[in-house]
Amino acid sequence: MGPETLISDPTAGFQDVLPDSERADFVQLWLKVRPGLPLEAEVLSPDVFAGLSLDEIRALPVLLGKQKCRLDDFFEIYGEKSRRLVLHGNLARVKRIGQGMTSGEIVIRGNSGMHLGAEMKGGSIRVYGDTADWLGAEMTGGLIRVHGNAGGQVGAAYRGSRKGMRGGTILVDGSAGIEAGMRMRRGLISIQGNVGDFAGLQMCGGTLFLGGKAGIRTGAWMSRGTIVAMEQPRLLPTFLYSCTCKPVFLRLLWKQFQDLNVPVPEWAWNGLVRRYTGDTSELGKGEILVCDPESNNAGPVIPGAGCSEAGLK
Amino acid sequence: MGGKPAATLGEIKNRADLVIFWGANPAECHPRHLTRYSLTPKGLFVPNGRKGRTMVLVDIRRTPSARAADIFLQIRPGKDFEVITALRALVKGRPINPRSLEETGLALEQLQDLAERMKRARFGAIFFGMGLTMTRGKHMNSSAILTLGAELNQFAHFVAMPLRGHGNVTGADAVLTWITSYPFGVDFSRGYPRYNPGEYTAVDLLTRGDVDAVLVLGADPGATMPQPAIDHLGRVPTIVLDPKVSHTSRLARIHITTAPTGISAPGTIYRMDEIPLHLRPALKSPYPTDEQVIGRIRESVEARIFDIRNWTGIEASRQ
Predict the structure, then answer these.
(1) A interface mutation test: which of B75, B94, B188 has the most A CBs within 10 A?
(2) Can you tell me the ipTM of this complex?
(3) CB neighbour class for A54 (10 Å; exposed up to 12, middle 13-18, buried from 19)
(4) Contact state of A159 with B92 under an 8 Å Cβ cutoff
(5) What SS3 state is found at A265?
(6) Dihedral (CA of B96, B101, B107, B110) sign
(7) A306 pLDDT higher than 50
(8) With left for phi above 0 and alpha for psi between -120 and 50, is residue B246 left, alpha or beta?
């Protein structure tokens, strides 16, 4: 398949992106040819770009289907020798951006393809658009911020792998697909919008924040870990009501959200939650904390109570 | 992640005293299955045949298979995962919330009874069908029932097996597994196999438009796949190998008629329990077999690659 769209002037809007003083510190990549097939570009990573000159960057290998191409077949590139990348254009078919990165920064002004920031260890990624499946899958550190929507399997474990995200932070301003936080072990995922089915599937640690509506089977098979839901999700029969409590942890989470510029509703600072434990078909030490206005109008509460015995409501 | 607790149908015939069908309708869809393998035949350790076995059917409606069953559990549509997860908890003796169980259409007592029967069984077999695998939750529904089957091995010998339709789908899985170690959704674009259902599976690749050519062998995606995937089949060069004109051949650029496998083409097929069986052709066909066509395509592609290499070599020497 030939080039689908050509951006006529690759420098259009260039001035808006960065002030002149900072421009030299960035490598700018403008998508000039929209690939007709998925483009695997794990070379789009600060670790790779750090010591490379412009010519070396242009010659970096990318895979279009099974065909080996050069990076400048698809991108207009400006700048060199930097750990900061700015990507422009609709990169919905460009997979594995920032895979395994350890430091530096990627800014994507457009959509991104699958496996963005998968297995990343450090640094940060910011996306002003939507991302596809496997965002930050099995990451161990770093920060990903998506201003649009994410696909399925955010911070998840790859098929056959026992552990998903093992550290770091993923913040999604929009919605996410199925299996968000699947088998996550540690770290923080925040989804402001709605999530699909199986959020927190087989979680064994970490924190998953759900700001909107959740699909069915939230927290299925979780053994440990915490899901904080701002709306009551539909729960499996293997989740039991434990108590209404005011965990100190939640206020720390809201404080962290404030630092990360994630909005926290005013009433949530009260910090009262209904706590459900499960999944009893697994270890049963996971918890779903429902922090909705109703829980904050609940009756008498033991302040700071941890929850010991799981009982039936 | 429980793995796949498997057995041959012969073992099930000779040993199983508890047979559970989940989201399947063997009486109508696999009419010989009950009488030959799983329910009525007398086996080495089940000398009384039907009387020595208990059959449980779990489905969303009362199908003709329910007449053959000792226990019929009618659950609400799309509640399979919930019921199986609750069963897994009950088998382990853990508490569940009876109020949210009500949504599944079953009472706690019914599930407790089933859990007890499963634990008391000597040899249990779970067969699951498309009612489970093709409803909301899909792969996790299958994962749930396989995990239940695996976990029950703490109490009794248990196996869980998909009750599959169509000719040789098990064969495709089996062969791909012993070649690549993955059963389906395998990508070879980097020269080594990679596995990721949802990314490399045919229906997802077609829906996203991520392929520029399609070879269809022994399948009719034009009849079964969602519309966006079918649309893409029409957009790219599609080649179909089929004994008859299918929905897909109408969309395809090329249709190659082949001999029907098992009738006029010999070969090995895999039964649903992954037992390989050799088939001798009963009739002669004027058409080539799938294998011959693929072999000839491969030969001519290899010749073309050789040509291109030579050609580029000449070009390079000229410069």
Answers:
(1) B94
(2) 0.87
(3) middle
(4) no
(5) coil
(6) negative
(7) no
(8) beta
Give strand ranges (E) for chain A: 27-31, 39-40, 61-64, 67-70, 75-78, 84-88, 94-95, 105-109, 124-127, 143-146, 166-172, 186-191, 204-210, 224-229, 240-245, 273-278, 286-290
Strands A27-31 vs B123-128: parallel, antiparallel or unpaired: unpaired
What does the pLDDT average to over B47-52? 95
Q: How many CA atoms lie within 13 A of A118 on its CB side?
A: 23
**What does the buried/exposed string (b/e) look like for B117-145 if buried means 16 or more CB atoms within 10 Å of the residue's CB?**
bbbebebbbbbbbebbbebebeebbbbbb
Q: Which residue of B has its CA nearest to A241?
A: B97
Summarize the confidence of residues A223-247 as an average pLDDT. 94
Would an 8 Å CB–CB cutoff place B2 in contact with chain A? Answer: no
Which amino acid does the sequence have at A76?
Answer: E
* pLDDT bucket at A298, cuts 50 / 70 / 90: low
- The answer to whether the Cβ–Cβ distance between B210 and A37 falls below 8 Å is yes
- Residues in chain A, overall count: 313
B208-261 confidence digits (pLDDT tens) = 999 999 999 988 999 989 999 999 999 999 999 999 999 999 999 999 999 998
Secondary structure (DSSP) of B198-252: TTSSHHHHHHHT--S-EEEES--HHHHS-HHHHHHHHHS-EEEEESS--HHHHH-
Contact B82 A237 (CB under 8 A): yes
Q: With an 8 Å Cβ cutoff, are A238 and B96 in contact? A: yes
Please state, for a pLDDT cut of 90, what percent of chain A lies above it. Answer: 77
What pLDDT is stored for residue B1 in this prediction? 57
Residue A74 in contact with partner chain B when CB distance is under 8 A: no
